[in-house]
Amino acid sequence: MFEFDQYLGFLAFLTILTIGFWLMIFLLTFVVPYWLVGNLREMLKERREAKRAQLDK
Q1: CA 51, CA 55: separation in Å to the nearest integer?
Q2: What is the rounded distance in angstroms from the CA atom of residue 21 to the CA atom of residue 30?
Q3: Reduced to 3 states, what is the DSSP secondary structure of residue 37?
Q4: Tell me, what's the pLDDT at 56?
Q5: Which of 2, 17, 22, 32 could bridge 7 with an S-S bond, Cβ 3.0-4.6 Å?
Q6: CA 50, CA 44: separation in Å to the nearest integer?
């Protein structure tokens, strides 16, 4: 069916595919939401500080 070098290539392909799949799952479930929440917090904090500075004038 497969020669040995084809078998190794197929295993390398499956390994890379699996690593890519789990990396995308990790990025979409942890990294992207963490980045978005941190960005929203920072934006709200800057708005709050700008409003306070305007009220203090």
Answers
A1: 6
A2: 14
A3: helix
A4: 86
A5: 2
A6: 10
1-57 pLDDT tens trace? 889 999 999 999 999 999 999 999 999 999 999 999 999 999 999 999 999 999 887
| Alpha-carbon span 46 to 51, nearest angstrom | 9
Close Cβ partners of 43 (under 8 Å, ≥ 6 residues apart) = none
Contact call for residues 2 and 10 (beta carbons, < 8 A):
yes
Please state, in angstroms and rounded to a whole number, the distance separating the CA atoms of residues 38 and 44. 10
**CA angle (50 as vertex; 44, 54 as ends), nearest 5:** 145
Determine the 3-state secondary structure of 57 from DSSP: coil
